[in-house]
Each structure stands twice: as C-alpha cells, then as structure tokens.
Amino acid sequence: MLKRTRSKSESRGGGGGRKISSLTMTDLNAHSGDRKRTCAFTSDACQILNELRKNNLLCDAKISAKKDLTEEYVEFPVHRFILAASSPYLRMAFTNMQHSENPFLQLDIGCDALESLLDYTYTRECTLTLDNINRIIDAAKLCQMTSLFQYCCEYLMNNLNDENIFHLYNFAKIHSNSKLLYVTYEYLMQNFIKIIKINKSFFELSIEQLIELIANDDLNIRNEENLFDACIKWIDYDIEQRKSFITQLIHNLRLGLIPIQLFITKIKQHSYIKDNDECKPIIGETLRLLYKLDNDGLMDTDIDCPFIRPRHAHEMIFAYGGWSGGNATSMLEAYDIRADKWTVVSTDQVPPRAYHGCITVANKMYVIGGFDGIEYFNSCRTFHLIDRIWNEIAPMNERRCYVSVAYLNGLLYAMGGFNGHVRQNTAEKYLFETNQWSTICPMHVQRSDASACTLNGNIYM
Question: InterPro entries recorded for this chain (predicted)?
Fold first, then answer.
C-alpha cells in the first residue's frame, strides 16, 4: 500500500496542503525594477468633477467675471484645489484667502472666456472658435495657464488660412511660441504671392515687416518680378507716405534674377525709380551683372551679390549619374520647379555610376548599386541635399544594377536587378539605425529595370 506523506513545508504552512508565499512591498519593487506607478484622472472622473462644479456641489469658492457688453458680473462656483493645481495665479489668490469663510475672486475677463477656462481646467478641453479664441487666450495669460495657451495655439495651427496668416504670424512672434511661429512662417513663405492677392492685411504691413519678408531667402516665388509688383501695390496703397521707401524695397529684391529686357522696360523705367537718384546705384549694379551674365557668365564672387543670389528652392527634382557620351557620369543636377531651371550641383566628388537605384529620404539622396561600364556595384552612397556632402553607407549583400528601390515604413528596399550574370529575384532591406542590409523573402520571378512605388502600406513593382 502506498501512503502519501506530507512534506515539511506543507506541515508548516497548513491551508489544505498548498504552499502560500507572501510578497512584501520591497519584494514587489525588486521585481518591478523600482518603477513608480503613475495615476491620472480618467476622462469620466474629469466629467464628474465638472458636473459637480456646474451643479454647485462640494464647491468651496466663487469666481466672478463680467457679462459681455454689460457691467453685470456673473458668479461661478468652483473647487479651490482644482483651480489651484492648474493656475499659479489662482493658486496664489486662493492661498491668500485660505482662512476666509466664503472665498470670492473677481477676474477682469468676460464670462464666456471664464466658462471656457473652467471647462478646460476640469476636463482639459473646451470649445474654441475663431470668434472666442482671442478672449480665451487673454484669460489663459491672465491666469498663467500655459497648457491652455498651448491648447489654443494648437487650434490656431489647425485653422491657418490665407486671410489670418499675417495676424497669427505676428501673434506667434509676440508670444514667442516657437511651434506656432514655425508653422506660420512655413505657410507664409510657401504661399506668399497667393496670400497677398486676397489678404488686405498685406497693405497694413510696416516697411520693416515688408522688408523682413521680401529679403528672406526662404520666400517661395516663381518670378522675382511678381515680388516687385507686390511692393509697388504696397506703395500705391499710400503713395505720399510710402513712395520714399522704393529704394529700400528694391535693395532687398533679387533684381538680377529678372530677365534683362524685362528689367529695362519694367523696373528701370518705372516712374518711382527712373527719376530717383538713390535708386541709380542699385539699377547700375544690377545692369552690370545682367550684361555680364549674358556675355561672360558669372564668377563665383558674383553669386554673393544680394541682387543676384537665388532664393532657397522649395521643390526640387534631382538627376544623378547615368550614361552620357558613351561613358558613365557622376554629374548631379537639380531642377528648381519654381524657377523652371536645371542647375549642376556636383560633378567630381564621387566615381561615375549608371543604371543605379535612386531615392530621397528626409534630407538625403540614396544611390543604390549601379554599373560604371566595367564593374557591377553592391556599394551605396548618400548625398546630403543641404550640406552637399557625399558619404558611403554599408554595401548590399548582392551586386545590383537596374535595381528597383522603394522606401516604406522607415525602411529602404532594394529589389531585383542584374549582377552581371543573371537577373535576380532576391531583395533586401536597409536599416538606417544600424547601417545594415539584410535579405528578405525573394520575389516569385526575376526582375530588373522595373519601376517601384508604394501605396497603402505595400510596395508595387
């Protein structure tokens, strides 16, 4: 007969023969790596607190604000600790009256703005419109509520348009809001000519504000003469007060980018310019550069002249390498869509290459594989489009010319191609973080010289 015996641990522990172990808080912290657990109000809890406020339940103070267009004040019951946690201004105010039996605070803002401020304080959201946004921003500034101010700025960024851009750009500068300033700046630089055709605020700009814009290298304009026309319209809005600014304005234009015949007939002969002695040195220097461009071309030192220095391109097409005159080439050219012009960017920093894959990711152009007439490459290189520097990156696992390339979900793919012997069905992906290529599942058939694109999370060849 077999007889079951109880172990020592079971005898000591009791409890039906199960071993029970207890963990102290020290043990739990040891297992969790001493991580602190954070707790936050749920949206439901925030809504309940706001309902308590609106129904004057458990409130311990009151705030009043002026009713719009009247001298009458409206009172709002509140919970001091919630407002004190959200606003340094209100925390100081309520702390100073902590011994008061009926704490009461009067704010110099509209009651609709205060209602929105309280909604945001309790729920972290409120109703914003283009009509009430300025009043709510003023209330946020008064109460030193940075989060509400940022909440309003997010709304403004999502509601930019051609009619409010000047106002929001100046607002961002005044309040030193870097994110809003960046968004409004990019919008203004990209759409300037379109904006000034419909936005009457353009005519209200000061001379300093106008010069800041027209002198900017980032200004996206197709023809410099369009900017000259805009300056003339700005002067015409108040001729007597603004005619004298013509010299300052044309001094900040890239007059050397205007075709010479158009410059002579439209700029040089304009009534504001032809009899203005202060304009003559600018006109003379521009003509000298334009004649030199037509006859001899420009020297490198001429490019530094502010009259002829190109503005930054916003949209470019790059063409690198290829086959030219029976040989592979290393020439890199850029097409400026705005200026409708091709420019040679680089020619001699890297060996020639043809039949390669080429793709841009962020600020870099990636050149994948290729052929130089003798060797088939697995090597890859990048060209930084801003710094204009070439760099080698890790080579692929296979030699590939006529290779198809695509970028998807943070990865660069090289597919198919010709290695000098056979067309391939293999494919590989490049990890930017580790600078490493790794093979992926091969294609069903061999492919080379095929186009590739992405759509809805897939690569199509």
Answer: BACK (IPR011705), BTB/POZ_dom (IPR000210), Kelch-typ_b-propeller (IPR015915), Kelch_1 (IPR006652), SKP1/BTB/POZ_sf (IPR011333)
Q: Is residue 361 part of a domain?
A: yes
pLDDT in tens, 179-235: 999 999 999 999 999 999 999 999 999 999 999 999 998 898 878 899 999 999 999
Judgement on whether residues 327 and 445 belong to the same structural domain of the protein: yes
Number of separate domains in the chain: 3
Q: Tens digit of pLDDT for each residue in 89-130?
A: 999 999 998 888 888 999 989 999 999 999 999 999 999 998
- What CA–CA distance (Å, rounded) separates 411 from 397? 16
Residues 152 and 226 in one domain: no
DSSP class of residue 417 equals -
- Residue ending a domain, among 304, 337, 359, is 304
Strands 61-66 and 104-110 turn out to be parallel
Strands (E), 347-389: 357-361, 364-371, 376-384
Q: Are strands 427-431 and 436-440 parallel, antiparallel or unpaired?
A: antiparallel
Task: At 329, list the tokens.
Answer: 């080439």
5 is a domain residue: no
Identify the domain containing residue 264 by its residue range. 205-304
Q: What is the DSSP letter of 333?
A: E
